[in-house]
User: What shape does this take?
Amino acid sequence: MALPNRAISPDDYLKMERESQIKHEYFAGEVFAMAGASPNHNIITASANRHVGNQLAQRPCIVFSSDQKVKTATGLYTYPDVTVVCGKPIYDDKHADILTNPTLIVEVLSPTTEKYDRGKKFEHYRSLPSFQEYMLIAQDAYWVEVFSRQENGEWLYQSAIGADSMIALRTFGITLSLAELYQKIDFPDET
Assistant: This one.
């Protein structure tokens, strides 16, 4: 949902955002309030943060939670569910609160954001030279997808379905268990 009817500048957005109690995305003069997340979304996000973080603990990578704002080269300001930066984080300004060099971005899909996460948002993320992998996690079934940037610039797709499956993050040479990512999730009965 867009907020004001008039276009605002990135500077005005950032001033508003830094004082706001809720998070907003920004693109091309429009500000969009971010909806709250479901319990399953929050549990999966925390699990992904923990399991990716544990596997990268001894590497020069930092794992950020969903409170970390990212700015793409196309001018989208957003808050991915999980963001990983390998090497030194590069921030957009002196406030050091807007990352511009994510290596991995994880989004937990919801019915209202799935189309956007798969389409336009992924397009914005691909504008970042540092961006190497994109993980999409369904919240209503054991289903994880990963897109990995190849040396030729193409994106390799892989999918894992089912509690016994594993998914690879090729950039890091690690695998994640879907059983661990979905631990403590109660799926609705399929009757």
User: Anything to note?
Assistant: Residues 1-34 form one domain.
